[in-house]
Amino acid sequence: MRLSVIGCGYLGAVHAAAMASLGHEVVGVDTDSAKVERLARGEPPFFEPGLEALLKRSEQNGSLEFTTDIAAIADAEVHFICVGTPQLPDALGADLTALVGAVEAMVPVIAPGSVVVGKSTVPVGTARRVAERVAAAGATLVWNPEFLREGHAVHDTLQPDRIVYGVDTLAEAKAQGGAVGIVDGVYRTMLEGGAPRLVMSYESAELVKTAANSYLALRVSFINAISDLADASGADVLEVAAALRLDDRIGRLFLNPGLGFGGGCLPKDLHALAARAGELGVMDTAALLAAANQVNETRRPRVKALAARALGGVLAGRRIAVLGLSFKPLSDDVRNSQSALLADDLVAAGAVVTATDPAAVGLARVSHPGLRYADTVGEAVADAELIILATEWQEYRDLDPGELAGWTRARTLIDARCVIDSARWSTAGWTVLAPGRPASVPGGSAP
Ligand code: UDX
Question: 389 CA to middle of ligand 1, Å?
């Protein structure tokens, strides 16, 4: 099938390449010419494992072009809207400027009978307005939220755990040869592979996405709230989490305590849902979501307080190495990264921070200019008095305490993501401090 993808960021670039790899003819459109040029050369414009190989595969199986010219979408049967919907600069709600811009740009170009598929994350109530606008061009809208995780985007796009279609009316969904059938044709490989497909109203489909991300945020904040209780009572949050995970009703994932959630999705989707709940007058829901955000906002001050404790109460003038800047491992994304923000907080308190990251140093240099940067762990820790593991990249989890001790005079590690085997590190002569966990010191007693 001939498809267009409007917006080639983390969502659209992967979606365009994935659809072409399934054998479709795809044209991706973005207003950012530098991004378009890189994608056209088969180079991912951001760090995403597997994307480069997918871009290559897509050229072999289907066809894939990128352009800044919206007219190039004219003969596509299906148009995917994948533009960003960031948080408004001065409010909690979502900024729909790019979405409105994309819809207005496509309406004069698209063919009657074509299908527009909304994948961007939007506040509930948006799709119905977009549907009216594309109806003016004789097109039909299906709202099809995307659930991909950065770092696993290729897998999540090609092997989704569910496919959701929001439609205007169920009668339309059942119509033979209608929009739903056309989108089924795009996703045939995934549907034949057994991906569950749920058809529902526009409003439900919009809400599924923000509810999913907000629930994940609630879980992270819940375990972090328990971490505060662990600190206050002498419990170890990791022992509590390990036992919680064995309860099938609770489940294993998204119970990792530490610095809290960041990135381009969870924080803004939680804010946007809280704002929308307020607008709709559903105040208890708004308060629940606001509380989850509040718990998240207190994570960095907690780790900063641990740093001050490790350095005898004074951060000013002290040298701290921060390992990890991206908002999570396997990503170069520093948007709302708690790790990079923590490094800034320490600098604001007068500390001299040298930070490193396997992928995110380039982007962090631009958005966090107050930090010093190092390319390797060895360089970052060379003159540090304290080391903070801020993003749990596997290579930092695998650090050898004996080897690290040879590179630095620091002997205290703050494990801000609660991922280090603290007994092993304290046996090797380190003091390990982690939020929600008893301190682990050489010899075994608290400092
Ligand atoms: C998220 C959703 O998972 C995905 O379905 C949606 O499409 C986009 O938003 P992503 O932003 O890539 O994906 O990150 P995710 O893996 O959800 O992690 C979000 C944040 O939560 C990270 O900062 C991570 O470090 C933090 N986190 C996650 C925790 O602190 N503890 C956990 O247990 C899990």
Answer: 18
Instruction: Name the nearest CA neighbour of 160 among 112, 208, 113, 123.
Output: 208
pLDDT of 12-67, one tens digit each? 999 999 999 999 999 999 999 999 999 999 999 999 999 999 998 887 777 999 99
Closest C-alpha to 416, from 219, 217, 262? 262
Residue 247 Cα to ligand 1 middle (Å): 21
Residue 312 carries which DSSP code? T
- pTM of the predicted protein model: 0.95
418 is known as an active-site residue: no
| Structural domains of the chain, ranges and CATH numbers in brackets | 2-201 (3.40.50.720), 209-297 (1.10.1040.10), 299-433 (3.40.50.720)
What residues contact residue 92 under an 8 Å CB cut-off, 6+ apart?
271, 272, 274, 275
Length of the chain: 447
Whether 152 is in the pocket of ligand 1, judged by its Cβ within 6 Å, is no
Rounded CA-CA distance 419/258 in Å is: 9
The amino acid present at 353, given as its one-letter code, is V
